[in-house]
Amino acid sequence: MRQECKCHGMSGSCTVRTCWMRLPTFRAVGDVLKDRFDGASRVIYGNKGSNRASRVELHHLEPENPAHKPPSPHDLVYFEKSPNFCTYSGKMGTAGTAGRFCNSSSPGLDGCELLCCGRGYRTRTQRVTERCNCTFHWCCHVSCLNCTNTQVLHECL
To answer: Per residue in 115-136, is it b (16+ CB within 10 Å) or e — as a string?
Structure first.
């Protein structure tokens, strides 16, 4: 949160100043969370000290990899690895990506390389008939032509 203020007074003078706390924009919050997500580290519960230590000192978070620095209070951490969303797992409730349609020219999340998890994809063409060039006739009648297009579909293996 950040403080914003506004001045009130005659001819722009600041005789009275009103201040309030304002949330940052949704984009700013999202950017901060994304940065923390990208830098998140896996941690385990540590048990340093004797059994006589207080509960606060008994359990603390340690990085899974001892070469990494311990997390700060502002770091994002996780205990369990995410399931493999690429393959079907009834136990974990993941459907996998086999059979999903992808965009072969996109480098983004919908791109075939990422969405198909490197397994490849098959390409097929399909003829699709749709209604087109529709016109409305007064009152209450619409007439359309049928247009046939060829679509190229990419499907994850």
So the answer is: bbbeeebeeeeeeeeeeeeeee
